[in-house]
Specification:
Order of helices and strands: EHEEEEEEHHHHHHHHHEH
Strand content: 5-15%
Largest sheet: 4 strands, antiparallel
Helix content: 40-55%
Number of domains: 2
Shape: globular
Number of strands: 8
Radius of gyration: 22 Å
Distance between the termini: 25 Å
Length: 282
């Protein structure tokens, strides 16, 4: 995810030239949580394989009928098959979910999608919790730095002018017309604000709600999220939403100019468009 500094250069850069768009704090924390989320995703899928089902409520078991997702394998006249059941609807997912590998075996997510690639719940939990703290630390550093330099409120949270520009921005994106300006466009602001101020906190809260240690300190948290099983489901759904955001983010970077976008988040310098700067009164 790209961010830029709220600090304005003393000499206003001319349109079409390089400007200093991303602060050092934004760039470091961006890569910090990018790496952390990579390991959290793959170790999380390994942990999920220990019980590849999701429920709504505080408890689960044979006496309950509250599963909303099940991944498993079953014997059939044609041999073992993998299946995924979502809200009671069953899908054949052989080779991908439930029954996969070489040789094939009963497992939720295949080895190529997990860390470690073989089943090792203990290692997955250790790595997962380590990068969970890296993730939380990166967010904390970004939040403090962004409050000090006002980056969060000035550059990420959408304003009235941004909302008014939303229809035009949607049309421009549908036409693959991208404007390289100092500020984020409204769709970027909405997406980044949603991730930073909604999905990230919800991911952390639902993770803590599943932890017995955290429950001893925050006993009200699981109940606030609808129970530990609901918290686990929320954790999984937020992971899917973040994965979807990442995929769309990558597509937008490729469409808008990967070299310019990558230079911005690595060095801080970004090349603006003449038309975009003039339109914003630069």
């Amino acid at each position: 995810m790209e961010h830029f500094s709220s600090e304005k250069p003393k000499n206003q850069a001319a349109a079409g030239q390089l400007i200093y768009r991303q602060s050092i704090w934004t760039r470091v924390t961006h890569w910090g949580w990018a790496v952390a989320l990579f390991f959290l995703l793959l170790t999380g899928l390994q942990i999920f394989n220990a019980h590849p089902n999701l429920y709504i409520g505080a408890e689960s078991g044979f006496g309950y009928d509250n599963a909303i997702l099940r991944i498993g394998a079953e014997n059939t006249p044609d041999g073992p098959l993998g299946f995924t059941t979502i809200f009671g609807t069953k899908f054949d997912t052989t080779g991908v979910l439930g029954w996969s590998g070489d040789p094939p075996r009963a497992i939720g997510f295949p080895g190529w999608a997990t860390i470690p690639s073989y089943y090792d719940l203990g290692t997955a939990r250790v790595v997962h919790f380590f990068f969970a703290w890296v993730f939380v630390g990166s967010i904390a550093v970004w939040l403090v730095a962004s409050l000090i330099n006002r980056h969060a409120w000035r550059d990420v949270v959408p304003g009235v002018w941004d909302i008014r520009a939303l229809p035009r921005d949607v049309i421009d994106h549908l036409r693959l017309r991208f404007h390289h300006a100092r500020e984020y466009n409204v769709l970027q602001k909405l997406a980044y604000a949603g991730v930073l101020f909604a999905l990230f906190p919800l991911m952390i809260a639902s993770g803590l709600a599943m932890s017995p240690g955290a429950n001893a300190i925050l006993p009200w948290l699981p109940d606030m999220l609808g129970g530990r099983q609901t918290a686990r489901t929320i954790h999984f759904v937020v992971m899917l939403l973040l994965l979807g955001f990442f995929l769309i983010h990558m597509v937008m970077i490729l469409a808008a100019g990967p070299l310019n976008e990558l230079r911005s988040i690595v060095t801080g310098w970004y090349r603006v468009d003449d038309a975009a700067e003039k339109e914003r009164g630069r």
